[in-house]
Structure formats: structure tokens, C-alpha cells
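cron nightly-structures :: item 1 of 1
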Amino acid sequence: MEARGEAHYDEEGGLHGWCWDPGDPTARMMVELTLDGVVIRSVAASRFREDLRERGIGDGYHSFTVILPAAIRAENGAAHVAARVARTGKVFWQANALKLKIDDNIAAGLTKAGEQLQKLSAGWGRRVPDGQTVSIARELKMLAARLREKAALAR
């Protein structure tokens, strides 16, 4: 299963999106809305949207709308809300993730990576020394590994 999806949140508390498996294009996917990892709502992604059909996302009957509970809509920053494919658990939308406390080492790594990328982008249009490119790639790989470790621990 190679499910794909997108979602966006509106100010009235609705989560609107779509979920589709190109390997099984007529299947209607079940979407789970989670709060801090606990499923609080499930909905079938089976509503029609013309824009989906035009984009080649199946027959267009792959959208959903979920009204988020008021507790989630409150801007308390403590909750992690996600939409995921029911059978696989693959998360395709999440909110409040950036409001969660982040490990100081990861924050420092993100800052350093951002600075390195800024230097690299300033060099576009002229040749960037290979050593600088290798250094940036190494930093990004190390940061990605730390993020994967933290994500695995959080599960």
C-alpha cells in the first residue's frame, strides 16, 4: 500500500483533505484523526472533489472533512494532532508539532543546518567548494539520524 494524502485546517474547526492509494485506485481509504497518538475520530475518504479527479487522483472520490473537537482547536500548544491512514498508520498531516518541546541538541542542529543552507544558497550561481558541500551534507545526514532516533523513541 502506497497511500498518499493531504489536509488543511480551517478557522471554523474543519480538517479537509484527501487520501488515496494509487496501487488500489478505486479503494476508499479510512482516515484516523489522532490526539497525542490516540485515535479520536475515523472517517472514510470517499467524498467527491472535481480538483482531485482533474489531478489524476483516482476518480475524485477520495476526500474527507472532519470537524475537530473544541479541545483541539484551543491554542494550548500541548496537543499533537495528526491525520493518518487507518491500515498503515502513515501520517500525512499533523499540527502543533512545532509547538512541542524540542530536544536542545536537535534545535541546535536545525539552527546549524539552516545557517549552512543559507551559505550554500548564497553560493548558488557560483561554484561552491566541494568541501563545503560535503560538510553540509554530513551535517544534514547527522541531523536526520537524530530526528529518526527521537521519532522512534516517541512511538
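cron nightly-structures :: done
The longest helix spans residues 130-154.
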